[in-house]
Specification:
By secondary structure, this protein is of the alpha+beta class. The strands form four sheets. It has a seven-stranded antiparallel β-sheet, with helices on both faces. It has a five-stranded antiparallel β-sheet with strand order 5-6-10-8-9. Strands 1-2-4-3 form a four-stranded mixed β-sheet. Helix 3 (61-67) packs antiparallel against helix 6, helix 12 packs across helix 15 and helix 18 (421-441) runs antiparallel to helix 19. Strand 8 and strand 9 (239-242) form a beta hairpin. It is built from 20 helices and 18 strands. Among the domains are: 3-16 and 48-156, Uridine Diphospho-n-acetylenolpyruvylglucosamine Reductase, domain 2 (2-Layer Sandwich), CATH 3.30.43; 163-278, Uridine Diphospho-n-acetylenolpyruvylglucosamine Reductase, domain 3 (2-Layer Sandwich), CATH 3.30.465.10; 282-395, Alpha-Beta Plaits, CATH 3.30.70.3450.
């Protein structure tokens, strides 16, 4: 099935496969209502045809001549599907049945040569271009902003699907339009793995991983996507920027690093070269419970600083632990079992730790022994392998659960950041307080959950999930106020505005705090050199 055909088989108003849906246990929903208050179920348009769009502007005829008329899609459905990403704000606007803007058409080039020619035409004719991969951005990365231009096209990379493996070097060239799951399936067929598994894995694309400096759930072991990239091509209106394929170079500042994370603002990435590993022969996923959030952080820090991190490490705070268990089965059965187990251990509460180890059988056994020793030394209690296996089995289901909660009338959204170990507790407290204070002031006291999911010797990331009673017809403003307060708290605490979601539109106002005024001016100068007409993804990353 082609990339475009796959996209039409997904939900236009929510996440993922159209035929897949998660139900919420009545007891869990009752618990949410008890804490959040009365909920107003949220209807959505019955048909994609009911979504109102502004009329399209005609694109230059040269575009269809370049790619073929059949690859210029200006129908209503394609325009709607390329008008937003997957953030709460995006989904709220889709559910309203009215979009303020959309691409005038979707253009689907066949290769890098067509992309380069398209960019030349668009720069000459003043047509804004938004590169589009899986449409999974949660920070406004594919918002159809035109800047100073009257016309806009969505540049869908779905036809760029190359997989070329170099088994001697354990590297591969991957086309930007491949979904993560597609690339991994082909590599596994050859006994290899990329090891990159973000929650958006099933639908996000290789090009999107590169453009947003993505991190996967197993990045502690396999590395973030920027660490996996060996070479990259960046096609800009001014020409092509390409790096050599090599393990390391000391030849000046890294242009590869400039392209990775550029979010379609500096150019379009048609393909990347990546490092591979042999597919793991063995794996072990298991669950532990730490005494507290503080104790759990101490355990993860020690694992990182003693170079003993598992491939996957995930530590939930007390509230996320309880809600994860409440949502895990009818009547919160898993929670009841856990309570009984901990009573036998003379312990109440605690924080869930998920550990995943992959590799050769001997390597997994050896690493697991060291990891278990450090977990026990930090006071953690072993819960068994069933909890770890269940987490792995359901690790891509969070966005489907969000759709179910939205239907019920719950505002659900996430945000993430990172800091050093010495300031991580301060960051955690300040962001949680900002979210709670803003939503409480709006009359919708929230549930704020958090987990630590990427660890380093010097620090770690924090991933927050927010649930609140939605305020009908005010949902977008309700969340934007809370997100702004959280971002201000992150900046005040000296944390990063994004560990792995990227900058997009939402975080662009905070880039000066991230890189400094001179750094921001430097990036803008680079954009002016690569994209003099300013056609590429207006408004994102640099504001």
């Amino acid at each position: 099935m082609s990339g475009i055909a796959q996209r039409r088989d997904t939900r236009w108003w929510g996440w993922g496969s159209a035929g897949r849906r998660l139900t919420l246990d009545p007891a869990a929903l009752s618990a949410l209502r008890a804490e959040l208050g009365d909920l107003s179920p949220w209807d959505r348009p019955g048909s994609i045809d009911a979504v109102e769009l502004p009329p399209p502007q005609p694109l230059p005829a040269a575009i269809a001549e370049l790619v073929g008329k059949e690859h210029v899609l200006d129908g209503h459905e394609d325009r709607v599907r390329h008008a937003s990403g997957s953030s709460f704000t995006d989904l709220a606007r889709l559910r309203s049945g009215e979009l303020a803007d959309a691409p005038d058409a979707v253009v689907v080039p066949a290769d890098g040569a067509q992309i380069a020619a398209l960019l030349e035409v668009c720069a000459r004719e003043g047509v804004a271009v938004v590169p589009f991969g899986g449409g999974t951005s949660v920070v406004g990365g594919v918002e159809p902003l035109r800047g100073v231009h009257a016309r806009l096209l969505s540049l869908d990379l779905a036809r760029l699907r190359e997989v070329a493996v170099d088994r001697v070097s354990l590297t591969a060239r991957l086309g930007a339009g491949l979904r993560g799951a597609e690339a991994e399936a082909e590599l596994r067929r050859q006994g290899l793995t990329l090891g990159h598994f973000p929650q958006s894995f099933e639908f996000a694309t290789v090009g999107g991983f590169a453009a947003t400096r993505s991190a996967g759930q197993a990045s502690s072991g396999y590395g973030r996507f920027d660490e996996l990239v060996t070479t990259v091509r960046l096609l800009a209106p001014a020409g092509e920027l390409a790096t050599l394929e090599m393990p390391h170079s000391a030849a000046g500042p890294s242009l590869r690093e400039l392209a990775i994370g550029s979010e379609g603002v500096l150019g379009v990435i048609p393909e990347v070269g990546v490092r591979l590993r042999p597919a793991p022969a063995s794996e072990r996923y298991e669950a532990w419970i730490a005494e507290s959030w503080e104790a759990g952080r101490g355990i993860v820090r020690r694992l990182a600083q003693e170079e003993a991190l598992p491939d996957l490490i995930r530590l939930s705070d007390e509230r996320e632990t309880r809600y994860s268990l409440a949502f895990s089965g009818p009547g919160g059965a898993a929670g009841a079992i856990l309570d009984g187990y901990l009573r036998l251990r003379r312990r109440a509460g605690g924080c869930l730790v998920i550990v995943g180890i992959e590799g050769g059988r001997e390597s997994v056994a050896r690493r697991r022994a060291q990891i278990a020793q450090l977990l026990r030394a930090g006071g953690a209690v072993y819960l068994g392998r069933s909890g770890g296996r269940a987490w792995k089995r359901t690790r891509y289901e969070g966005p489907y659960l969000r759709d179910t909660l939205l239907d019920a009338g719950v505002l659900v959204e996430t945000l993430e950041t990172a800091h050093t170990w010495s300031r991580l507790a301060e960051l955690y407290e300040s962001v949680a307080a900002a979210l709670r204070g803003t939503l409480e002031e709006a009359g919708a006291p929230p549930i704020v959950l958090c987990h630590l999911s990427h660890a380093y010797a010097d620090g770690a990331s924090l991933y927050f999930t927010v649930l609140a009673r939605r305020l009908p017809r005010e949902e977008v403003e309700q969340w934007q106020a809370a997100k702004a307060a959280a971002c201000e708290a992150i900046v005040a605490a000296g944390g990063t505005i994004s560990h792995h979601h990227g900058v997009g539109l939402d975080h662009a106002p905070y880039m000066a705090a991230e890189v400094g005024e001179l750094g921001l001016a430097t990036l803008r100068a680079i954009k002016e050199r690569l994209d003099p007409a300013g056609i590429l993804n207006p408004g994102k990353l640099l504001g």
